[in-house]
Amino acid sequence: MIAKLTGKLDETGEDWAIVDVQGVGYLVHCSTKTLAALGAVGDACTVHTDLQVSENDMRLLGFAESSERDWFRLLTAVQGVGSKVGLAILSALSTGELRDACAAQDAATVARANGVGPKLAGRIVNELKDKAGAMPGVADGGMAGGTAVSPAGGASADAVSALQNLGFKPAVAAQAVARAQEELGPDAGEGELIRVALKRAAG
To answer: What is the per-residue pLDDT across 130-184, written as a single tens digit (0 to 9) for each?
Structure first.
């Protein structure tokens, strides 16, 4: 699976970008926040990706941060949230705002996204309320929930991503890493988190 692209930003559209990697152009569908973060056409860029394959389509989704990709995977695990709706939510809300909205059961905030009605917003916050605390969230300006994000947030996000790459569902991976974080403390490294989280997920 294609997990990351590093190359030159070749072209952009309303919800997509083409990244030129050594002469090969990859079309990636992105949120507006990711498009803004990629810079200007011709700039060097790195995009974290998620490949979605359906019966009639193969689509590469692109994200400026791995935390945004983690949230996308979690969102699209909710019934009724496809890739377009997932990107719409991530266009309307930063990952920090999304995390706080889910934790607080604030469906109205999630419903700000295009294509998300009150019923779907309610389902999203209800299903993700217990998982939000373990997920990375960086609000605009590098703040999450009104406080600075600690470096451990990156380690936990990477650990969640690693477990998902091993085949664990996003929700299971997030919960296992959250329990590992509680056990090891905020300064735990990625390797320690993965080791303990694997035991928790297997148990």
So the answer is: 887 667 554 333 333 332 233 334 677 777 777 777 777 766 777 787 788 778 8
> Could you tell me if 151 and 137 are in contact, meaning their C-beta atoms sit under 8 angstroms apart?
no
User: How far is 125 from 103, CA to CA, in rounded Å?
Assistant: 7
DSSP, residue by residue, 39-85: -STT-EEEEEEEEEE-SS-EEEEEESSHHHHHHHHHHTTSTT--HHH
Q: Cα(110)–Cα(42) distance, rounded to whole angstroms? A: 34
What range defines the domain where residue 107 resides? 66-143
CATH code of 47's domain: 2.40.50.140
* Count of structural domains within the chain: 3
**pLDDT tens for each residue of 85-116:** 999 999 999 888 898 888 888 999 999 999 99
Whether pTM > 0.70 for this model: the answer is no
Among 128, 143, 158, which residue terminates a domain? 143
Which residues sit opposite 51 in a β-bridge?
A: 60
Q: What gap in Å lies between CA 74 and CA 59, rounded to an integer?
A: 17
- Are both 85 and 124 inside the same structural domain? yes
Evaluate if residue 201 carries a pLDDT over 60: yes
From residue 39, how far is each of 5, 44, 66, 104 by CA, in Å?
15, 8, 17, 33
